[in-house]
Structures are given as structure tokens and as C-alpha cells.
Amino acid sequence: MEFQFALLFVGIIAFSDSARGPPRIADKVIHRQSVRLGRTIKLLCPVEGDPPPLTMWMKDGRTIHSGWTRFRVLQQGLKIKEVESDDAGTYICKATNGFGSMNVNYTLIVIDDASSGKDSQVPEGSNGEYEDHSGKQWARPRFTQPAKMRRRVIARPVGSSVRLKCVASGNPRPDITWLKDNKPLTPQEIGENKKKKWTLNLKNLKPEDSGKYTCRVFNRVGEINATYKVEVIRKYCPLGHSTKIGVHCQ
């Protein structure tokens, strides 16, 4: 009896040990994925193991973390919202447990309808040639983050800040100029380097900063623009009320 119990006990241990192991693929993976500009996509990481593996995501060798505001790491995948052109690349889900690790690889392709030729126009004086040297068709500029441009009337108190976005794509790559009340802003007024030219940062707002701010985006094919109305609210102090130290009312 004791001998049979011992054999049963050893068998249970052997069975449980055979079930434990490194992460493994639990479902079919389509390694080449495509998504349209501005849409949402979810890349799955269908792995299993015992113990359950922990996962982390990387893009082009860089670890994706909470600072990537449009990216969200889920239990079974990676969700990317409001996809931008720069989101194209190689994505890796790395699953790890005490027995080992494995990678699930994806290549993400971002489709820009504006560059597909549907909205392309032949520029004047081009003699019918409407492709660049790489063979890619010219395309009018288009805003790539329209969801972040819905609020066009913005009120802010004195001393605060505001960011106005006009991120766009096109071919050739468009340029952008910023205007306030139809007058171009100087480089000193814009105050940001070229890498951040698609966002206008207005800091330490003053009443005279109120006005209409327009981004004008253009290339040799066409032009688009968007206007924000910024209202800087003054701080008033009721008569007969004292103010706290350091607070100025106007």
C-alpha cells in the first residue's frame, strides 16, 4: 500500500513538472500588420506558460512605458491609439518566466490615404511629373491628429500655459508657419526648436496673448490651416477682500 502511494506521489510530481516550462505561443500570429493613419490598432501577445509569463513591449529596440501616452500595454497585447506615421516599425513582445523567455515579433505598416494618390494633385509647372525621386506620389498636407484639435476655443488664466497642436503629413514633407491675428509669429515668439514645430507652446500667459492663432501647413501640392481662439482670463479681486501673499489680481 505504501509502495503504491509512493508511486502515485512520484507520478503527480512528474506530471506537474512536465506541465511547467518556458513561455510558448498559444495562438496563430500574423507578424505583418497594417493600420490607417489616425486609427487604433491592437497587437496581440498570445503566449502562455507555467508559471504565467510577464510581458514587456519594445518598438525599434526601445522599451514602451507609461510615458508613451498613446500606447497602452494590456494583459494580452499592446493598444495604439490615434496612430501616427512614426508609429510604423518593428514591435517585439517579450514574455518571460522562471524557465525562460520568448519573443513575438510584429512589423507595423501605417497607411496614409493622403499619400495613396486619391487626393494627389499635379502641381502647376510640373509638366505632368507628380512623383518624387523615390517614385512616391505627391500628396496634399493633412492633419494626422484631428482628435487633438477638436477644442478650438480655449480659455486659460493669467500665468498658465497652453499647447496648440497642428501635426500634419504630406509629400513632400510640409512646412508650417504660425500666425497670431493673421500676422506671422517670429522665431522668438514661437521659441521652440524645429523638432517641435508642429506644436505651439504658449507659456506664462498674459492678457495680451489673447487672440486667434492659426497654423498654416503647406507643400508644393496644397495647403491647409486651422485656427485656435485663445482667451487669457484676468484675475479679479472683490473689493474689500485682501489677497494672499504672491497672488496678484488685475
From TrEMBL:
GO terms for molecular function: fibroblast growth factor binding; fibroblast growth factor receptor activity. It is found in: Membrane. PROSITE patterns: IG_LIKE (PS50835). SMART domains: IG (SM00409), IGc2 (SM00408). Its main location: membrane. It is a single-pass membrane protein. Residues 23-109, 141-231 form the Ig-like domain. Residues 117-143 are annotated as: Disordered. Pfam families: I-set. Residues 1-18 form the signal peptide. GO terms for cellular component: plasma membrane. InterPro entries: FGFRL (IPR052615), Ig-like_dom (IPR007110), Ig-like_dom_sf (IPR036179), Ig-like_fold (IPR013783), Ig_I-set (IPR013098), Ig_sub (IPR003599), Ig_sub2 (IPR003598). Keywords: Disulfide bond, Glycoprotein, Immunoglobulin domain, Membrane, Receptor, Repeat, Signal, Transmembrane, Transmembrane helix. This is Fibroblast growth factor receptor-like 1 isoform X3. It comes from Alligator sinensis.
